[in-house]
Amino acid sequence: MRLEGTSLKKDFMRFIVPSIAAQWVFTLYTMVDGIFVARGVSETALTAVNIAMPYTMALFSISILFAVGTSTVTAILLGEKNGKRANEVFTQNIVLLTVFSVVITVLVMANLERVAGFLGATELNKAYVAEYLRWLVPFSAAFILSYSFEMLIKTDGFPKRATIIVTTGALLNVGLDYVMVMRLHMGVGGAAFATGISNTVVIILYLFHFCGKSGVIKFCKFRMDVPLIGREFKNGLSSGITELSAGFIIFLFNQAIIRLLNDDALVSYTIISYVNSLGVMAMVGIAQGYQPLISYYYGQKRMERCRKLKKYGIAAAAVLSVVYTAVCMIFAENVVSLFVSVEMPALVDYSVIVLRIFALSFLLAGYNVVIGGYFIAVEESFAATGISLSRSIVALTVCLFIMTSLFGGAGIWWTPLVSEGVTLIFTGRMLKRYAKP
Questions:
Q1: Alpha helices (H) in 156-186, listed in sequence order
Q2: Which residues, 6+ apart, have CB-to-CB distance to 107 below 8 Å?
Q3: pLDDT tens digits for range 283-329
């Protein structure tokens, strides 16, 4: 079994490094779209990509919800040496996600203008938002399945292969973005189409693995197990909320910015949302990277190894949080310049200031996300879901209301730091109360 090597610390690094890389690559799909749209179309079109992003995040949240739940159950079954049942769990998950994808695609395509309006499209960018969605939505199945396959191939013991596949897709996306936006002048629709094609290619590469001979997990015949869906849903709910929260945060902040600031501030927040996604998804990469290992040893009742992995995860999150925050502080101007022309100095200066404020929240976010991942791995779903709900919906919404009431539009940029601090207190209490002995 490839989940167990000669050194626990080496196994930890072997799983989290590819996992972090894979999460960054997934995030770069949309970020690359934004860079090419900003350079090849306009800053207004860039805001359209950001406004449509919650839809993409919603697709990923569905995928992660079931992928993490399935991965947890599958890893436990593999730890118990029950490979046949693990294959049935895997196959049922893929079939269900395919069905969900088709239903979502049909419903959204039939209500495209309403969806664009709901996401927060303004009169200035509504046409761009609708165009982006029109080209993106038909590939909904590719988005959902690619993320699920990425998580499950790591559970199968091939984290490096997962990274190679998603990196291949990302490089393809960059090339196609350049051709469709800069050369063929297909606008925001071309950027969305490039992303959809890239994800489809990634699906094909994953199928080569799961239909081949190298892995343990395979497709097989199965009987629908409804209680299993409930177990997967419970285990994956926290991760699904974490992923959905990225889209929810963007949606919530877009609405607050439109109400309290202006369209230029939307450009600034679009840049921030990309940087935020890279930071948070790095922490998610640690959480998802060590999750199969913890679940595997949890299935074997070897709790001393689970506790060691938890300590490794906290240490990795602490280091990465400090490094990422420092990079954002030092290179804020360079990041902003990727999206905003130097001919708009006022917008550049404002974006740099608010990016540095926002980046402070990364110092606390890592601990919350990684501890939530530990609770998922040992099937403490109540604690994991509570942490995710706090940092993504409850604390965030309350803090945004309070901060904007006290400080107006300026309070928007300080909200993530305050929200993560509130969640950190809650996480500490959950860890003390629900951690496995």
A1: 159-177
A2: none
A3: 888 888 888 788 888 877 888 888 888 899 999 999 999 999 999 99
